[in-house]
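Recap from last week: sequence in, structure out.
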Amino acid sequence: MNAQPGLVIVDKPAGITSHDVVSRCRRFFSTRKVGHAGTLDPMATGVLVIGIERATKILGLLTTSAKAYAATIRLGQTTSTEDAEGEALQTVSAVHLTDSQIADAVSGLRGDIAQVPSAVSAIKVAGKRSYQLAREGHAVELPARPVRIDRFEVLDVRRVGDFVDLDVEVDCSAGTYIRALARDLGNVLGVGGHLTALRRTRAGRFGLDQARTLEELGDAPQLSYSLDEACLQSFPRRDLTPDEELDVSHGRPLVSAGIDGVYAATAPDGRVIALLQDSGQRTRSVVVIRPATL
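Predicted structure tokens:
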């Protein structure tokens, strides 16, 4: 029997790649058509959105959603990867830092900022991943890109020898690197910094409260959301008439709906036929979920 299309919200454990999670889900759900939205580093844990079968078609749209993280930042040490897995490059005592100095530096990194991505990110440079070039010993200089930090809050400050460890929570736009935020905070304070722990708590509308472990999925493979539920959870809804349903299933445009962004064009029986977007006076198909030829 073919696997049903939909999303699985996984609580990724530390020590494996996002692709490792995809590989396991391929085995659990007995299909090769599996993908993920928004890569998590091996050291990171938490929400990883997995698409099964035709739900892989909407993953690219889900990667643009806002994210939320819980993290631990160590002030007083710079590493080659900007996290605890890299080689220590420089250690500068952070014992002199006051809580108010830290709070002021954190405040300066909120809002719309220009962030230079981590050199060990998956961004492509001349056809190769940045992290591959960095590991080969090449100097990687990535241009700053605009990101938005809606929330950057310090929950706890711990003084450990010459270091200061901060437990923080961050709400941010897609494309934000929390490792780079740790690096930049350390630079602002003049002592360097890196990430020692990272947990994604939310990706768009999907949170840890919906996530399942790989052990749970191995015992009982089950979708978190059907494809219809996933579309209606993630996008505004436009109800179609039967005639409009037929047009949309053939990829034909409709009259614009006046809805901002991508929306789910939904048949009278509740099935999502396509994801559409207004373009002037007409619609354009972003993804046809149920083409007439299906």
